[in-house]
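Quick start: read one record
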Amino acid sequence: MRTLSLLLLIGLPAFAQQHFTGLNATGRTGLVQAGINPAELANLGSRYEVQLFSVSANAANNKIGFSDLFEGGNLGDKLFRGNEAADLRFDGEIYGPGFAFQTGKWTFAVISKASAKLDLVDVDVNIGDAVTSAGLDALITGSTTINTASNQRLNGTTWGEIGLAAAHNFYDDELHRFSAGITFKLLFPGSYANFGANRFTGTITNDLGDVELTNAQANLNIAYSGNLGDDFTRFGDYTSSLFGRLGGAAADLGVNYRMADESDPKKHRINAGLAIRNLGGMKLRSANNSDTNYLLLVQGNESLDLNQFQNVEGLDEIEDVLLASGYLDRTENTKKDFKVRLPSVFSAYADVRIVPRFYTSVYLQQKLNPDDANDQITYQNIITVTPRFALDDFEVWSSWSSHEISGISGGIGLRAYGFYIGSGSIITNLLSDNNQADAFIGYGFRLD
């Protein structure tokens, strides 16, 4: 399938799922920290905060190492090698202009953000290899039987957010401070595409490049909205559809505890928080909207030619080819407007001063819903440890994370006044063959 091939060739060099790794532990609170926990707004440290921009991009998988990008060869062959199912995630976040201000024990903020995601979830390596390499290697002959219980997914989503946030400092004795916060988010879905194949069974036979599927059965979901239905491999299709029409709402909730440093009350000995984010979903509305469940059934002497998927580019073409084959039966009427769920996530963190100017933080992120539902936008479970050296207007840190998909990664970041830049994987990419690549940059300033 050319769709998957282009995804691998274009996506990896361009764009894991903890954005701004290590920045949540910084001593300077801004709107990015409020995006992790709205209660952090109570620790703003100035009367006004202006966010100009922040960009974070991540790519994570369980098969392709960083060095594979520069060695040449077919990335599809590398992703679908071995026996373990392939998982691959691309994820980007862009914070636009934002503003926060404090008045008394309250802090209020307006935050704008756009998100883009492209994921492969639990794809059987034999299926992936068949639809990306069918007909390209005429020297291979053989058959493989497939029996998977999971829901294999290819999913792309873009959406924008406008967040209205408030935090309240409800206890402060100058040493201990307790705060709570909430962000109410208006959602603007841009584009969406999902191909799900649940409980797939069948036999794939390659006869000198002629690849066929026999004795097959699967429950399929094919859903798309906007330009990702036509082609979800072009980078421009994501950037051109980040904000659509208003189509949903969500909320972030959080609490925060802060123990001040007696020698300098503007700094902390302990800063800890709990948050639940992305409670909500959005409805997709577009002229080409389609969300349909099918039963794929290939029986007896019947066979489905997999070579015909080599040149398809979008889910609407995949759907047309399968319908024309005669092996696809609709099990649910097509829905023109349909909903998808945001990736709800629980997070907990603590940043502790070890000695003056040296801190260590621990961050835990746990998704609340599994990734296998066809209407679920995906997320990753992550734990991160970040040692940090901090001066008043300068900080440098090294973050080390264990990711659900890509394993261990380590990187470095720095902040100078309101400017910050970093990567959560650059160290391990330089020292070893890491399965993740990410980077972030941003700037904001304060007004007293």
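The chain has one domain: 2-447.
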